[in-house]
Amino acid sequence: MDTLSRRKFLKLTSGVLAVGATSTILSLDQIAQAAFNRPLASGTPILVVVTLYGGNDGLNTLIPYKDPIYFSSRPDISYKAESMLPLDGELALNPNMGGIKGLWDQKKVAIVRGVGYPKPDHSHFSSMAKWQTASPDRAINSGWLGRWLDSQAEDPMLAISLGSVLPPMLAGTKVSGSALPLGGLVVPKGGLATECIQLSKATRSDSKLMAAAATSMRNLFSITASVEPILKLPAPPTPDLPTVNGGNAGGDNNLSQQLDVVAKLITAGSPTKVWSVSLGGFDTHANEANAQAQLLGVVSTSLTRFMSQLKSTTRHNDVTVMIYSEFGRRVKGNASQGTDHGTSAPMFLIGEQIKGGYYGDQPSISKLVDGDLAVTTDFRDVYATVLESVLKSPPEQTLGKWSGRTNFLTPA
Amino acid sequence: MNAKRLETSRLFHRFGFGPRPGEYALAMKDGIVATRNKFLTVPAIDIGASKVVDPVITDLGPRPAPNSAEVVPFAIAMRTQTQDLILWWLDRMVLSDHGLTERLTWFWHGHWATSIQKIEYALPMFIQNKTLRTNALGNFTTMTKAMLNDGALQFWLDGQDSTSKAPNENLGRELMELFVLGVNHYTEDDVKAIARALTGYQVVRSNGLVSINQNRRDANPVTLLGKTGAFSSDSLAEFLSARDDCAAFITQRLWFRFISSTEDMPASFSVKGAFANRNISSAVNAMANDQSMSDERYSLVKSPVEWFVSACRALELVPSQLVKAGQLTNFLDNLGQDPFSPPNVGGWPSGGAWLSSATAQYRLAFAAWLIKQSSLNGLNNLPIASRLLKSADWLGVPQWGARTEAALRSSLDNSAQFALLALCSPEYIVSA
Question: What is A2-399's CATH topology?
């Protein structure tokens, strides 16, 4: 499986690069060659970050289903106890998260409870910026994984975000991750390609932004050469999922499409250690129960499908998925069958290397802080653990001195 | 870099939507003072803009029952009206003789960022767009009052669902954070208070009509930012916009969108004082005269719509006449910027976010598609011998870098390729 797709990768890639072999293209060639000449070493850990935009309601994701305060706080938007998926005597998953419940039963899901940061900010933008920069105390311009990229040898394949706009998380101070739109990339060929590559060279008179514009075009050529052939392959099979009408269930939404591309590229040995995918729509101020359940259903089925796809590859032991949102929501519902912006919420980590179970304390819904759930775990504990134990990099480069850890990985 | 060329280029690309063929060279002859005055003086009648006919956008009423015979014509009308609305605005941006009004309307659209994706009907968005244009260079307090009574904004931020029994904080919070005061210039208690003051609004979704239902309204006094009283939307707009934080915040937003989204605003930036009376026009004048306008550090990435509109002006194309409209909106969507559909209430991204390998690809394809439909007169009229140099004037670029010159020089005999490279060059994607 791996071998076959890598051969296709090699063949088609060199085909694309044969156009006008000048020295300029050679250096691009080198980048693309590196992408497959040194495929990610077998056993190299891979991080897949799933961002849920809008503020996912943590209390309707991981539900204190025995607590009468939960039901009385949210008369219009609480689920029926019998429809939920109990994990133990206190907490249950949202009724639509059957797939993740299955992975939990296999001990592959860590749920970090009550995650947030000090002095919670209720603004989507500020809060998401705090999560993505990992700097809740002061505003900075670089993302936490962007700073990690700064510490690595420059390679446009190292961190890739699906979609055409790059999330701030992947913006470093020196280098940034690359963006890959769902439909893949199509680049000019022939003489025009030569001139476009000329146009993407750095020049001394460039301002920082012009240099970034030139880099974006340069990356277009190097990444396209590497990934385009892979994107044309069929999605990897899902050996342990039931098939529906000849295909696997859950593959028709945007998150699934993003994860399909990630699965294809991981299978082909793309030298990418960090992937970023996302799903929006969690800002459920109104008519929440249906909307959120539907979205969580998408998250659950997409990730279950993805984890299953990885089983048909040699990489399934290497991948760790991390799911987060910018904040949870207010405990008490509003008049619109929805909830307003809140504070802490659970994070999910999924993978073969994960030591399944709960981490962090469940915030009490009777002892609220200004009407909101308390923060019991700082997200930097989770990031530090991800950096140290998944990406095998010293967290200090990215987070500064940070001693907190959440030990959700099976000891090596 | 030549300071006069730089400042002239910035006037064209930041206070308008780029030059039409010949305009930049003419402005260089007129000199910076005359050019600046021309950009800042809104003419009584804009002949170019007046040729753009308002779209026919009607109240389509409630959505018909599922599976009824009316569903299909309704859906077609919804789609057509939205597309007509987008094309109408893009046409105004491209065809206006004087760019400042549309440019500011575009800025305010990103400021009071409302998306049609939620309300779905074109009519409330059309009304909002007219409100933004009417107030674009007027008084910010008046604009805030108008926006609090704007159906599209109210609906977008759940104002119609906010009642005295359970106030919805969405509108109140964003009003302070994103529209008037800036983040952290209020407490969480202020958010709860303003939410109560803003209860009771009702919106007719299909036409944006706003009313207040006294039964749903919390008319009790609240304490907001230290002041206790029963606020109306007007007194709320007056109270918030009179605060010093408002002047600081709007100044910051103008800096961010017109001068630099990547560099910090220096203390010398002279806009806040000019905005003392909340007159937007004075603030914009101060900004155009500020010393930062000729400072090389402050380059700015053109957003996809800004890039597209300026390309249309250089290529002498009219958006609504492009073949086909569906493809045009697809390109804008791929680049991540559909007018009337900002990604969230924070408005459009900026700077490096528009510069991914993916957008590089779409921009190339988009430019090629536009060039195919243009006579390229602006370029073809330049003699080959001086084409390289003069093409910078054609597009209003201060100067080509060595790298771009090399690419353009090898395309001198191929004007379509020359135009494609020029429009996708770092010097054109970025306003120097």
Answer: Alkaline Phosphatase, subunit A (3.40.720)
